[in-house]
Amino acid sequence: MSLTDHIAAWGDSPFASGAAREAWDVVGGLADTMGRLLDTLDAGYAVAGDIAVHRTARVEDGAVLKGPLIVGPDCLIAGGSLLRGGCWLDRGCTVGPGAELKTSLLFRGARLAHFNFVGDSILGRDVNLEAGAVIANHRNELADPRLRIAYRGGVIAADIAKFGALVGDGSRIGANAVIAPGAILSPGTVVPRLGLIDQRPMA
């Protein structure tokens, strides 16, 4: 499973040179990686502790920002949103009212409309989540929540309990859809409103 097959800009991102090669490994080490990236930012960012917000980004009153966090140029962080656990937003991203983003990467132009939850995930360029869509990051219904993904005729397994999704460039996730933990969405995927994507093997 190649990250560059899903996110064309991956090779030019600050995360491409890391040792981790799987999306869940990148997400699992994100807080530490973010700490190192904070030291590389230019004067275009206003930095307070472990939170960096580009001076062209807009953060509305009532948004809650918890580091480590990097908010790139021309982003919008709406009132009532929550960003936590180590997040990185590329240029032109939106986290709308009432949305929660946890331990995730958003590539250029990715948008959480409002009242979304996205946890432990990587969203490619121009990914859009309509209102209420959720990318879940933990299977609390299972005694063994470790990652199992049915993918291209095989099963990917990893000894981790929390991972949301790898969402390819240009994907569209409809209102109130649910992406179950451990999803891999190809670029241009369209998930219908009220849809469910669950790629865990049945057995």
What can you see in these coordinates?
The chain is mainly beta and 203 residues long. 9% of the residues lie in helices and 32% in strands. The protein is built from three helices and 24 strands. It has helices at residues 3-6, 23-28, 30-38; strands at 45-48, 51-54, 58-59, 64-65, 69-71, 76-77, 82-84, 87-89, 94-95, 100-102, 105-106, 111-112, 117-119, 122-123, 128-129, 134-135, 147-151, 154-158, 165-167, 172-173, 178-179, 183-185, 190-191, 196-197. The strands form four sheets. The protein has an eight-stranded mixed sheet. The chain has a seven-stranded parallel sheet with strand order 3-6-9-12-15-20-23, with no helix packed on it. A hairpin with a 2-residue loop joins β17 and β18.
In short:
With 203 residues, this protein is mostly beta strands.
Major sheet details: 8 strands, mixed
Annotation, overall tally of beta strands:
24
Order of helices and strands: HHHEEEEEEEEEEEEEEEEEEEEEEEE
Strand order of the largest sheet: 1-2-5-8-11-14-19-22
Average per-residue pLDDT, rounded, comes to 95
Low-pLDDT stretches are none
Helical content (DSSP H or I, runs of 4+): under 10%
Can you count the helices? Answer: 3
Radius of gyration: 16 Å
Strand content: 25-35%
Shape: globular
* SSE-based structural type: mainly beta
Give the termini separation.
22 Å
Give the arrangement of secondary structure elements.
Blueprint: H1 3-6, H2 23-28, H3 30-38, E1 45-48, E2 51-54, E3 58-59, E4 64-65, E5 69-71, E6 76-77, E7 82-84, E8 87-89, E9 94-95, E10 100-102, E11 105-106, E12 111-112, E13 117-119, E14 122-123, E15 128-129, E16 134-135, E17 147-151, E18 154-158, E19 165-167, E20 172-173, E21 178-179, E22 183-185, E23 190-191, E24 196-197
Parallel strand pairs: 2-5, 3-6, 4-7, 5-8, 6-9, 7-10, 8-11, 9-12, 10-13, 11-14, 12-15, 13-16, 14-19, 15-20, 16-21, 19-22, 20-23, 21-24
Antiparallel strand pairs: 1-2, 17-18
